[in-house]
Amino acid sequence: MRKSQFQVSGEKKEEEKRKRSHGGADHGAKKTEGSETKKPIEDINASADAFIKNFRQQLLIQRLQSIENYEQMLARGL
């Protein structure tokens, strides 16, 4: 019987997991993983900062539009 592509890839993943969990050489890899986790955190911080900056900019725009609408309403005499 022929194995499907998913079965073969699943077996490869299981084999990689076994290699990672049973090797003495993985200690060095764990140190690099720690440094790799800092980069995504920095990316998240940068994304959060950009989101906050954009959010504040949108609030300012809405506030200015509201003031402009209010002034137009007063100019119409309502």
From TrEMBL:
Recorded superkingdom: Eukaryota
The protein's name: DUF761 domain-containing protein
Region listing for Disordered, in residue ranges: 1-41
Basic and acidic residues bias (residue ranges): 10-41
Pfam families: DUF761
InterPro entries in the cross-refs: DUF761_pln
